[in-house]
Amino acid sequence: MISNFRKNKSDSGTENIKSLNLPKHIAIIMDGNGRWAKKRNLPRIAGHKAGVEALRDVIKTCSNIGISYLTLFAFSTENWKRPTQEVNALMELLVIYLRKEVSELHRNDVIIKVIGDISKLPETAITEINKATEMTSNNSGLTVNIALNYGGRSEILLGVEKIAKKILNNELKLQDINESVFSNFLYTKGIPDPDLIIRTSGELRISNFLIWQAAYSELWFTDIYWPDFKGKHLIKAIKDYQKRKRRFGGI
Ligand code: IPE
Ligand code: IPE
Ligand code: MG
Q1: What separation in Å is there between the alpha carbon of 37 and the centre of ligand 3?
Q2: C-alpha distances out from residue 122 to 40, 84, 134, Å
Q3: Does domain 22-152+193-243 have CATH number 3.40.1180.10?
Q4: How far, in Å, is the centroid of ligand 1 from the Cα of 34?
Q5: Rounded to whole angstroms, how far apart are CA atoms 222 and 237?
Q6: What is the Cα–Cα distance from 9 to 19, expressed in whole angstroms?
Q7: Mean pLDDT of the region 64-77
Q8: How far, in Å, CA of 101 to CA of 60, rounded?
Q9: Four-residue CA torsion sign, 87, 34, 116, 130
Q10: What are phi and psi of 71, to 5 degrees?
């Protein structure tokens, strides 16, 4: 069935969101899948499945209200520490998700991008990621960045390495390095810093997510577990964001 994101605009209370002062870039630490499952006496994997389901409403809402960038923390460089069975299940879910959802995202003009070192992912996952990013690369709607095998520290180190190589090859001068030049050596090159970072599940930390880019992001936390997070919660976060005064160090 062909569905269009722009239907049912009133679902999430999007009708009275102020289009002025909308965050351009929202990033989400989608946490709490395991606890969501535990609460229901289900295996952790069931929580991850439900977590994937939760993506639809959130992406649709972002697209509807005109958010430009949505970055989703899906798998961290530290998540490899989990039992192999869980890691494998997460990789399989990624493949299933992309196979199932990419054409609808494409129809809705969504651009799919990935941040992180995907070379360490299973071959099937890399193939689906490449298909999805290529298929949607000429779209002009919401950009969804999926953070996979992503870690802020490793991203910064990789940037330092790339810069050092350029200097050694005389392609860059030491005195020309500045914050904006450095940003171009990160996965998020060309993407504005997140205005709003949301973390679900009650944890009050960044967990190595976008640590360079988050320097002046507004943070919003909720106790809701990720699988229960809906467009209406996102709208609440945006409305709270719109009440905040960002000073960037000024007065
Ligand atoms: C987030 O949910 C998903 C990933 C980190 C892949 P968790 O799996 O971390 O859920 P909790 O924190 O154990 O509840
Ligand atoms: C952060 O959640 C990573 C993702 C949501 C993908 P974690 O569950 O891995 O974070 P910690 O371990 O509680 O800090
Ligand atoms: Mg967690």
Answers
A1: 12
A2: 30, 13, 18
A3: yes
A4: 5
A5: 9
A6: 14
A7: 98
A8: 12
A9: positive
A10: -110, 125
Whether 210 has a pLDDT exceeding 90, the answer reads yes
Q: Which two tokens stand for residue 245?
A: 């005064």
Q: So which residues are the catalytic ones? A: 31, 79
Q: Which of 237, 210, 235, 207 is nearest to 221 (CA)?
A: 237
Is the pTM higher than 0.85? The answer reads yes
pLDDT tens, residue by residue, 8-57: 555 556 667 878 899 999 999 999 999 999 999 999 999 999 999 999 99
Domain ranges of the chain: 22-152+193-243
Question: Rounded to an integer, what distance in angstroms lies between the CA atom of residue 128 and that of residue 97?
Answer: 10
Q: Which residues contact 50 (CB under 8 A, 6 or more apart)?
A: 33, 36, 37, 227
**Residue ID of nearest Cα to ligand 2 atom 11:** 207
What's the CA angle centered on 141, arms 155 and 215, to 5 degrees? 35
Residue-wise over 78-114: b if at least 16 C-beta within 10 A, else e? ebeeeeeeeeebbbebbbebbeebbebbbebebbbbb
Quote the CA–CA distance of 154 and 211 in Å, as a whole number: 10
> Higher-confidence residue: 5 or 181?
181
